[in-house]
Amino acid sequence: EEQLVESGGGLVQPGESLRLSCAAPGLTYHNSWMSWIRQTPGKGLEWVAHTNQDGSYKYYVDSVKGRFSISKDNAKNSLYLQMNSLGVEDTAVYYCVYWGEANYWGLGTLVTVSS
Amino acid sequence: DVVMTQSPLSLSVTLGQPASISCRSSQSLVHSNGDTCVSWFLQRPGQSPRRLIYNVSNRDSGVPDRFSASGSGTDFTLKISRVEAEDVGLYYCMQYRHWPHTFGQGTKVEIK
After folding, report:
1. What are the beta bridge partners of residue A93?
2. Which residues, including other chains, have CB under 8 Å from residue A61's CB and lie 6 or more apart?
3. Number of neighbours of residue A30 by Cβ within 10 angstroms
4. What parts of chain B have a pLDDT lower than 70?
5. β-strand A68-73 against B10-13: which pairing, if any?
6. Is residue A19 a contact partner of residue A80, using CB atoms and an 8 Å limit?
7. What percent of chain B is modeled with pLDDT above 90?
8. B49 and A61: CB-CB below 8 Å?
9. Cβ neighbour number for residue B90 with a 10 Å cutoff
10. pLDDT (tens digit, 0 to 9) for every residue of chain A, 115 residues total?
11. Positive or negative, the Cα torsion across A65, A68, A70, A71?
12. Which residues in chain B have their CB less than 8 angstroms from residue A108's CB?
């Protein structure tokens, strides 16, 4: 089974930035929609951002609009999430998710926002 | 946002016995193309979610046929015909008809 691998998570202070990356060499990114979905014990699973095959369409949940930016590099089979102005409410495990001929989730990367 | 309400939130099942999880959406999930946009996921302990079902009743590749799902409009059901030890975990329904796509709160399945 194909595996996506996220990186870039960590501990940051409120107001700081992080950039998450997701790689999956065995998958065909240019045919797929891709998402970032986060999970917390309190709010469960929450769709954060989503982009289409060529990156021309992007969706963001209201709580991250203007702060987060999703991007895709099909040539590198990579997905990114630039997260700015992070708040404690952004603390979560962030999953990279592939919606192509099958559905694959990464292992998740933990983002902790705390002072 | 569309609210997905699952029941029960917890289920204790004897090995080999059936199990059923319900999911109700606050809005119709029927797309203009005729598809009904509901999926089911299983998150085993310590693992990422894995999709089991898409478009109400279509099993993903590799999903055992003891898993089946049905429903229409706003009411959906996931059934396990004979629960096995590997079926333990959290089950989520998800709608992808309306933005933001939303998940149910999860149903914890454990072995009695």
Report:
1. A39, A110
2. A46, A47, A48, A49, B100
3. 13
4. none
5. unpaired
6. yes
7. 96
8. no
9. 19
10. 667 999 999 999 999 999 999 998 777 777 789 999 999 988 899 999 999 988 899 999 999 999 999 999 888 889 999 999 999 999 999 999 999 888 999 999 999 999 9
11. positive
12. 48
Check B49 against A45: CB less than 8 A apart.
yes
Tokens of A11: 């501990």
Residue B33 contacts by C-beta under 8 Å, 6 or more apart in sequence?
A: none
Q: How close does chain A come to B60, measured CA to CA in Å? A: 7
- Compute the nearest-CA separation of B73 from chain A (Å): 22
DSSP 3-state assignment of B31?
Answer: coil
Structure tokens at B42: 């299983």
Q: Which stretches of chain A are assigned E, i.e. beta strand?
A: 5-7, 10-12, 18-23, 33-40, 44-51, 58-60, 68-73, 78-83, 92-99, 103-105, 109-113
